[in-house]
Amino acid sequence: MSIDLKQLKYFLAVAEEKSFSRAAERLHISQPPLSQQIMKLESELGVRLFARTTRSFELTMAGKALMQEATELLGRMRMTIDTIRQIDRGEVGRLRVGIVGSAMWGPIPSLLERFQTEFPRVTWTLHELGPDQQLEALRSKQIDVGFWREPRMDEEELKQSNLRQDLCFRENFCVAVHKDHPLARQDAIELTDIANEPMLTLHLNQSAEPRYLIQCCVNAGFQPAIFQEAAEPQTLLAMVGARLGVALMPQTTSRIGWPGVAFLPIRTNPPSANLYIATTSQDDAPVVRAFLKILNPDG
After folding, report:
1. Which residues cross the membrane (predicted)?
2. C-alpha angle 112/114/120, rounded to 5°?
3. Which is nearest to 69 in space by CA: 85, 49, 54?
4. What integer pLDDT is reported at residue 269 of this predicted model?
5. C-alpha distances in Å from residue 119, one per residue of 108, 122, 126, 280, 294
């Protein structure tokens, strides 16, 4: 048996119009090929679909049953096609986003808001992970995109990991000190001004970022004295507020009022807190393309 969707479409047109001539006009074809397709359909099914007399044109019982089934089938097919096209445009699907915690103090919330507005049928989830964890999650396809800060991965490492990494937000680090610290009276400081201060930092074995910041201090001419390490930026700020030391934090951190903490820009060669997005280079998922389009509409 060989029945195609075109035959069902032709059959429905005749059944709804109750006229071959009107159905042919509606379908923008001539009547002879329409009649041939209906006869072929009846032959394939082995039933009569229309009861034709000189005075009437009615569906048979088999025809009425086929009309109902064909209407539902073609409706489902149209919905399927619409869904497939929406998936191809990234309008339907799932997006798993990896982030470092400090990214939520910057542009990421507004980016997610725009994405939610433009692609309301996409389900997205946030996964707060360190850079190393995000890297492994991307490799194992547990997340679709990842956001982390400097230092940027080198091209060879990106190639070996089948990743691409793009700059999405420029930012510098600043110094977080207690609001009563003598440095807090200045509008900006040099990195060397904290050379003798107890340094609070994220775990040095957690990612390359805290090690990068230590190297920036060394490049500026001093070896920082690490007093405490922590897993979360909020913990560092709580310790700064408790007068336990100073910390290097992304400038966007200052947008949130942290009790007892002042944020000081660094005048000369501030460490970069640039935010990067990483994706799997071999994955061209439509929902990821849609997300990247929101991030870079001119890209």
Report:
1. none
2. 85
3. 49
4. 95
5. 16, 6, 16, 21, 10
Q: What is the dihedral of CA 276, 279, 284, 290, to 10 degrees?
A: -40
Q: Report the distance separating Cα 255 and Cα 249, nearest Å.
A: 12
Distance CA 14, CA 18 (A): 5
Distances (CA, A) of 16 to 24, 54, 159, 166, 296: 12, 19, 59, 56, 49
Q: Is the dihedral of CA 28, 31, 36, 41 positive or negative?
A: positive
C-alpha atoms less than 13 angstroms from C-alpha of 115 in its C-beta half-sphere: 27
Contact 228, 200 (CB under 8 A): yes
Per-residue pLDDT tens for 178-205? 999 999 999 999 999 999 999 999 999 8
- DSSP code string of 45-65: HTS--EEE-SS-EEE-HHHHH
User: Counting Cβ atoms within 10 Å, is residue 5 exposed (0-12), middle (13-18) or buried (19+)?
Assistant: exposed
> How far, CA to CA in Å, does 223 sit from each of 14, 105, 122, 231, 250?
86, 29, 47, 22, 20
Cα 225 from Cα 211, distance rounded (Å):
13
Structural tokens at position 111: 């980016």
Q: Looking at 14-133, which runs of residues are DSSP E strands? A: 50-52, 57-59, 93-99, 122-128
Helices (H), 161-224: 208-220
The two tokens of residue 80 are 């399927």
> Are 173 and 273 contacting, i.e. CB atoms less than 8 angstroms apart?
yes
Residue type, 128: E
Q: Are the C-beta atoms of residues 118 and 294 closer than 8 Å to each other?
A: yes
